[in-house]
Amino acid sequence: MNNHTRVFVGIDVAKDSLDVAVTDDQTVRRFPYHQTGLQRLAEYIQPLNPELIVMEATGKLEDRLALFLAKAGLHVAIVNPRQVRNYARAFNQLAKTDRIDARVIASFAQTVRPRGYQVPEQRETRLKALVVRRRQVIRSRTQESNRLDRIDDPSIRAMIQQAIEMYTQQISLLDDQIEQTIAASESLTQRQNILCSTPGVGPATAGTLLAELPELGRLNRQEIAKLVGVAPINRDSGLMRGKRTTGGGRITVRNCLYMATLVATRHNPLIRRFYLHLQRQGKPKLVALIACMRKLLVILNIMIRDNEEWKIQPQTT
């Protein structure tokens, strides 16, 4: 292979296998998704010296692979699957198999060249696992609580109540472990203190932001808003001016930011003034709230970037 040829790799990630496509090579190779398979994959990819390896976000299946390749010194990016599907549709590539997907991802990598993956600290990886598990347990407890309201049988109600109590204990344990993990890292502790100094942002929101938005403080205001999914999207064509919308991005981060913003519109003087100003302008409540989410996120981004705690009137430009 010509040493001057830039190589891009696309990997379609499944539970038990990895389909790997390389630009300018029609062969798609499959590797088992276990430790031995990862070693074989690295032995295959490293001599190619790829400029970028891209995979889709697939419900956390990709995390182990991305971390392994990044630690091997390879450049990796994780992208939203919707971006890849839209790219495929643009070329009328409607068929979808693991091997086709791998080739499409490789082509996407070569054309788009998305932002690279940053290897998290060991404690950041641990924190993310704890935060994700806490969210799962809360969801399970809510489901059991909803079932309890519809059950009359005493024995079944007792079993459901036991499950609710178990989940409540797990949440308390996870909260303790999250707190201990953050306290064991000077960097995480410092960032948590900055985030929690903001009216409306509590430990749960701070933990989610630390675990699932490590880019906070490293991107500009447009990039961080787009990453979370609170950036307005233009829908204009010719003389038509469409309604701006938001969406995409990291839904778990957006959900926790939504709850923090609800609190901030009541207790954070800066966000409250902004929220009331938008309402006086006739903006619908949801539109005003999303604008406040974006403003709060941008402020937090700047605070982390500048290593400064909350100010009454922080600089947001």
Can you offer a commentary on this structure?
- The chain has 317 residues and is of the alpha/beta class.
- It folds into three domains: 8-112, ATPase, nucleotide binding domain (Nucleotidyltransferase, domain 5), CATH 3.30.420.40; 122-184; 199-317, no CATH class.
- It is 58% helix and 10% strand.
- It has twelve helices and seven strands.
- The protein has a five-stranded mixed β-sheet with strand order 3-2-1-4-5. A two-stranded antiparallel ribbon has the order 6-7.
- Strand 1 and strand 2 (17-22) form a beta hairpin.
- Helix 5 (122-148) packs antiparallel against helix 6 (154-183), helix 10 packs across helix 11 (269-280) and helix 11 packs antiparallel against helix 12 (285-306).
- The longest helix has 30 residues, at 154-183.
- The radius of gyration is 23 Å and the shape is globular.
- The N and C termini lie far apart (48 Å).
- Residues 234-242 have low confidence and may be disordered.
Distance between the termini: 48 Å
Element-by-element helix/strand order? EEEHEHEHHHHHHHEEHHH
Estimated share of beta-strand residues:
5-15%
Number of helices: 12
What does the largest sheet look like?
5 strands, mixed
What's the Cα radius of gyration? 23 Å
Q: Which structural class is indicated by helix and strand composition?
A: alpha/beta
Mean pLDDT figure: 88
Give the strand order, joined by hyphens, for the main sheet: 3-2-1-4-5
Domain module count: 3
Which spans of ≥5 residues are poorly predicted at pLDDT below 50? 234-242
